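Students often ask why inverse folding is considered easier than folding. One informal answer: many sequences map to the same fold, so there is more than one right answer. In these notes we will look at a single instance of the problem. The structure comes first.
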């Protein structure tokens, strides 16, 4: 994919990220490739939507993020709007989303420019709601305590069908999860949960979430949910501290939508997208969460090693049994793959 113009999303508070950004600018300058800094904060110290940020950046062939998984999610929100590929540059910590070390950024860009990089697709989520999301007056000040400005409530997409029972279509892209959670510490949120149009159960809980396979290792995992391979197309519904016997996650097909309605006796509920508060709902309001038609496209220089990263991030190498099992794994010897295993996904042997 020859590059003509790329965008940079940088963790401005990280010295290594700023140094990496200068290397990207220098690489682009030496090849007469356009490079624009995507100002995710806005010049007026306000946050903009992903669509507004992309419009301000102009046409792009690639978005490069320099930071951790949080910075990557900022870039992903922008890239998914127009099917732009994302290259996540890691700054030294093992992340589930970023994988290119900052020392290899020039090599990675050259590989993309020469068409030698692979593309991995990750499922994303989007939303509809009974009404446009809003933040109550004064909540912006609360959110900014010790932090930068909050994202604005999602815009309504042109495809909306308000008035016919399907709600308003919101301009939301979630790579990890959409979470509905209580606002008041002393009051749980009561929610009716519908899967594929049928009532599953009414929950009283601290919150509930719908996660992608990518997000299964984030908040959903912390709440007791399962780990899903990022190669899957599925959704995970996970309740957070529910006051009921059935407290398990439910794994759904990618074509099964999840609707959550705030029950009349409930308190208000906050709606968060990938950890960012985007609105507050009242009793009677509802949201629908479902797989977006467009995936996120990640640049990969080598076959993904999700399970190796899982071992590192979750410190599975610290398990006592680890030192007792150093034999070669059955499913990845270096010899040719047998015919009865040829239909399986088997990355090349390590080393």
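Output (designed amino acids):
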């Amino acid at each position: 994919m020859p590059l003509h113009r790329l965008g940079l999303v940088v963790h401005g508070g990280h010295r290594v990220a700023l140094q990496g950004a200068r290397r990207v600018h220098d690489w682009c300058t030496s090849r007469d490739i356009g490079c624009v800094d995507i100002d995710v904060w806005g010049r007026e110290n306000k946050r903009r939507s992903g669509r507004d940020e992309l419009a301000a950046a102009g046409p792009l062939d690639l978005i490069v993020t320099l930071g951790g998984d949080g910075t990557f999610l900022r870039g992903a929100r922008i890239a998914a709007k127009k099917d732009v590929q994302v290259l996540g540059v890691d700054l030294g910590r093992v992340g589930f989303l970023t994988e290119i070390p900052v020392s290899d950024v020039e090599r990675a860009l050259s590989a993309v420019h020469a068409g030698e990089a692979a593309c991995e697709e990750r499922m994303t989520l989007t939303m509809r709601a009974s009404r446009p999301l809003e933040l109550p007056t004064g909540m912006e000040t609360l959110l900014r305590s010790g932090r930068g400005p909050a994202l604005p409530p999602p815009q309504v997409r042109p495809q909306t069908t308000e008035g016919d029972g399907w709600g308003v279509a919101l301009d939301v892209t979630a790579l990890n999860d959409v979470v509905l959670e209580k606002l008041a510490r002393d009051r749980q949120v009561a929610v009716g949960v519908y899967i594929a149009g049928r009532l599953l159960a009414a929950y009283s809980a601290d919150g509930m979430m719908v996660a992608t396979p990518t997000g299964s290792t984030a908040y959903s995992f912390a709440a007791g949910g399962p780990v899903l391979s990022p190669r899957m197309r599925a959704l995970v519904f996970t309740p957070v501290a529910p006051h009921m016997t059935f407290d398990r996650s439910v794994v759904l097909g990618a074509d099964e939508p999840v609707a959550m309605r705030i029950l009349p006796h409930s308190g208000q509920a906050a709606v968060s997208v990938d950890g960012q508060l985007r609105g507050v709902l009242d009793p009677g309001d509802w949201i629908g969460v479902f797989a977006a038609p467009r995936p996120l496209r990640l640049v990969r220089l080598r076959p993904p090693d999700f399970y190796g990263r899982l071992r590192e991030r979750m410190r599975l190498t610290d398990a006592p049994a680890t030192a007792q099992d150093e034999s070669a794994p059955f499913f990845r010897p270096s010899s040719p793959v047998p015919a009865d295993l040829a239909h399986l996904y088997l990355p090349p042997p390590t080393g």
